[in-house]
Design a protein that fits this description.
This protein is of the alpha/beta class and 417 residues long. The protein is 28% helix and 22% strand. Helix 1 packs across helix 12.
């Protein structure tokens, strides 16, 4: 019997990395998507998204202005939401009305989950791993607020920081991924009946997809205050390190977290595996005259610099491997990867015809996108590089999506038999 596809709502869709990964498994169908870039008139990412997936059921407006009733019911809500300040404020008019700051997009997800009568059974979200430690004045507070508010909405959460290169993928890119299971789903009850460290280390969806070393430091456990406002105001106010480690779960406000290490011995893809060899446009090669500038920016520095106000300070940074190593996964792509100007963080490779920057199609491959996914009339190479600096590694989404689907159906089968 063929299992039904899970219906997906994709928020903060960018150029569609979540969608590509989930659709590659054959088990998911996007029923609604939203992509809105607040700072630009031209909606470049949304144009690429529509060119690849069609305009139907795609929204290109600020998610904060989209009424929940306009978003169709779905089984799973996915998206890479921005890392912002998630602090909680009470509104004076109505102290029951807990609201986060306007413009903070976590609260748009929260609003959809709290207003939907048929809540999505699963959430699959992504963020920069800084989320676990922010803000610097109360490390871990934002994550604590997020976990507590999901608990209050009936979701058990597991998270894991994953570096794609640790599992054989072509780019060192570290991101935190979350899966959440709604009360009443078989996965929620399975998690509830499993010892927390057993779930984190071997039974959970992340552990089954991306195995970890079983010899780990002891788990750390703590309970998150129920009152969101006081949690937001007081969490880790002594300015200690964040209590959230790279793996963990949260069930009914109780957190268990463990520092895990990857356990992988499969094939590794490296930078040389994804390179184009023929017909490379001349502007990608670095001019001899620009080399000193590149070398300076990539090199180690100890120097005295001046602030705008004229204060002098000591500045130092280590050197970068230059040119980039071809026999390793690539360094993380950042949004400023494109364009000709010399920079510390752009990739430069040595070729038989001299040093050159990476092409947009090579950047797409480093994120495991199909070739030329972002190629579109009116979209510059610099913009294409920017998309890839914002994107996620499609292979990670695909593997987690496949495991999640398998797990949902395994557990269902056990219950039926």
């Amino acid at each position: 019997m063929g299992m039904q596809k899970l219906k997906v709502c994709e928020l903060f869709a960018g150029v569609g990395g979540f969608r590509l990964g989930l659709e590659n498994t054959g088990h998911y169908q996007v029923v609604w998507s939203n992509q809105w870039e607040p700072s630009t008139k031209m909606q470049h990412a949304s144009l690429v998204y529509e060119a690849r997936f069609g305009k139907e059921n795609h929204s290109n407006s600020n998610i904060e202005t989209v009424p929940t009733k306009d978003i169709p019911d779905h089984d799973i809500l996915v998206g890479g939401f921005p890392c912002q300040d998630y602090s909680v404020a009470t509104s004076l008019k109505n102290s029951k009305g807990l609201i986060g700051k306007k413009g903070v997009l976590w609260w748009s997800i929260h609003r959809i989950l709290s207003e939907k009568k048929n809540k999505p059974k699963y959430l699959f979200l992504e963020n920069v791993d800084r989320l676990l430690k922010s803000p610097s004045t109360q490390r871990g507070r934002d994550f604590a607020v997020m976990l507590r508010s999901l608990s209050d909405l009936g979701y058990a959460v597991e998270w894991r920081v994953i570096n794609a290169a640790d599992y054989g993928m072509p780019q060192r890119r570290r991101r935190v991924f979350f899966l959440a299971y709604l009360k009443g789903t078989t996965l929620h009850s399975k998690l509830r009946k499993t010892l927390p460290n057993k779930w984190i280390l071997e039974k959970g969806t992340f552990a089954e997809t991306f195995p970890v070393d079983q010899n780990t430091p002891k788990p750390v456990s703590f309970v998150l205050k129920e009152n969101l406002v006081s949690l937001s105001e007081t969490f880790n106010s002594k300015k200690e390190l964040s209590p959230f480690l790279n793996s963990g779960i949260c069930l009914n406000g109780k957190v268990t977290t463990i520092k895990t290490s990857p356990d992988f011995d499969g094939t590794k893809t490296v930078l040389s595996d994804i390179l184009e060899n023929d017909c490379i446009a001349p502007e990608y090669y670095i001019n001899e005259s620009d080399m000193p500038k590149w070398e300076y920016l990539k090199g180690s520095k100890k120097e005295i610099r001046k602030t705008k106000a004229g204060f002098e300070y000591n500045y130092s940074e280590g050197g970068m491997v230059f040119p980039d190593a071809l026999d390793q996964p690539s360094r993380t792509i950042i949004t400023g990867e494109g364009g000709k100007s010399p920079s510390r963080f752009k990739h430069v490779i040595q070729t038989s015809k001299g040093p050159r920057r990476l092409l947009p199609v090579e950047l797409e491959r480093l994120n495991m996108f199909p070739d030329n996914h972002t190629k579109l009339e009116g979209i510059s190479d610099t913009k294409r590089a920017f998309f890839m600096g914002n994107a996620l590694v499609v292979g990670i989404v695909e593997k987690i999506g496949a495991s999640l689907f398998r797990k949902i159906n395994e557990v269902e089968k056990q219950i039926q038999s």
